[in-house]
Amino acid sequence: MDNIVENIPNNFVYIVIIASIFYIFTQVIQARTSHIFSLIVTFFIIKTLREKSTTEYENFNTDIDYRYELIGLPSNFYMDVNLINLYFSIYKWKNFNPHNYNESIRAVNNVLQIEKHSQKLSRCVDNYEIAYDQSKNALNMLHGFIYNIEQPQLVAKLKKVLHRLQELLARHLSNIRKNCDTIEKNKPKINVDSRFVQDHDGPKAHDQYSQFDFY
Description:
The chain is mostly helical. 69% of the residues lie in helices and 0% in strands. The chain has helices at 2-28, 33-70, 81-89, 98-117, 124-143, 152-185. The relative contact order is 0.08. It folds into 2 domains: 2-67, no CATH class; 75-212. Helix 1 (2-28) packs antiparallel against helix 2 (33-70) and helix 4 packs antiparallel against helix 5 (124-143).
């Protein structure tokens, strides 16, 4: 019953469209029955595809919710589904080194926390530096998995994961930097005490595993 009630608006739209088609092709254009039938069939094909798309979207959301819960429901990861998928893709590695896995997630979550509030932080530049340090820590923690994996294909995967995480973190740091610069520019007067974010190349893990040539 609830589903019927919820679908009344959509069903009403469909009825109006069909009625309009009948009116146009019988009173205005004087189309043949075959033309009207073809349009109705086309309409229901579009409707079926739309419903299929909705179902796929709902299934996608269910899958993301499952992945989000599996990696521990970090409080700010809802801001970037890419991060949920990234840490889910290496979830099995958590058995090798739970500390590094959890600490990397915690560090990324801190970056997202700062980004979420960066438009209203009183010391935005200082908080950007904290976010930058946290992003490097997140990469360092994942970098440490090189001691826990041996197969060449896993080492190759680790390299790709680190590169992807670096890209995602650089994107969020860029958002924080833009917000900080906006705050500084909107202050009553820019003077020698004004501080703008230093332009970094992007976060990288500390090169303590240089023999593996990750970067």
